[in-house]
Amino acid sequence: MNEHFQVWFDTSSVVGIFTSPAILYFAVGLLLVLLAKPVKGLTTRYHLSDELTKHDNKAVGVATAGYIFGVLTLIRGVLISGGNPASSLGRDLLSVALWTVISLSLLLASAWINRKFLLNQFEVHKELITDRNVGTGAVLAGTYIGTAFMISASISGTTGGGLGMEILDTLVYFVIGQLGFILLGAIYQRTCGYDIHGEIERDNEGAGLAFGATLIALAILISGQIRRDDSLVALAVWIPISLFVLLGSRWLVDLVVLPDARIHDEIARDRNWGVALIEGAAAIGVALLLDASFS
């Protein structure tokens, strides 16, 4: 008992808080976050600040919120991945900056990939800027957040072999993760009970919200497997299992939460974004549960 109280009131950890170089890593992380906004501005055909403030464009706001969360997730992943113990503080900070730049580049690349292959039934720029389509913004937010989860997992799970091999590992996992998103989009279209692209294009916020959350759920499962095992074969087997479980979670919501209604009717016919939120939360919750079961 006395030893327990001594641990409670130990002051040595307080000294560590004020002497740790962590504040430098935090400062570098904040600087990189500040640079993320103008970098994203270079990749868009609209003025980000004007859309967010002058035009009060909520669709761009939702997408940007996902982007910012994704950037912070990436930087956190880089920081906790651990540097080389033999490196100096300066080289370690340089490594953090380098990996953040690589990760941010992949995050922006994912936006282009998903516009071309995941949301390819309509023009994303028009939906965001002209129609101010919040559903489109929700899907983009889901891709940003989900991609950030997978990139962070690949950084922490690199197998060594030098910087070149670590970058190759990250690129391979990134490509597989994007293919997983595209596969989910194709299967979701066939199983959700309505035309997902058509509903999003018709400004159905619920359709975009449910789909975006399901993308995040898939990313949670893929990133968990990347952290557990470096085998690409195991990952190829895990992705179909993940898709099956996530699609099954929709059936679970129908059976248990909404026994007197159907998700597809509530979302497509009634545009009930509350039900869409339940579907998305169930998908993410089931993904977290399955991931924890295998961890």
UniProtKB/TrEMBL annotation:
Q: Which cellular compartments is it found in?
A: Cell membrane
Classify the source by domain of life: Bacteria
Q: Name one Pfam family in it.
A: DUF350
Instruction: Check the record and name the InterPro entries matching this protein.
Output: DUF350
Q: Name one GO cellular component term.
A: plasma membrane
Q: Which residues cross the membrane?
A: 12-36, 57-81, 93-113, 134-155, 167-188, 209-226, 232-253, 273-290
Membrane topology qualifier: Multi-pass membrane protein
UniProt keywords, alphabetically: Cell membrane, Membrane, Transmembrane, Transmembrane helix
PANTHER family found in the cross-reference section: UPF0719 INNER MEMBRANE PROTEIN YJFL (PTHR40043:SF1)
User: What is stated as this protein's family in its record?
Assistant: Belongs to the UPF0719 family.
- Name the chain's protein: DUF350 domain-containing protein
> What's the source species for this entry?
Luteolibacter yonseiensis
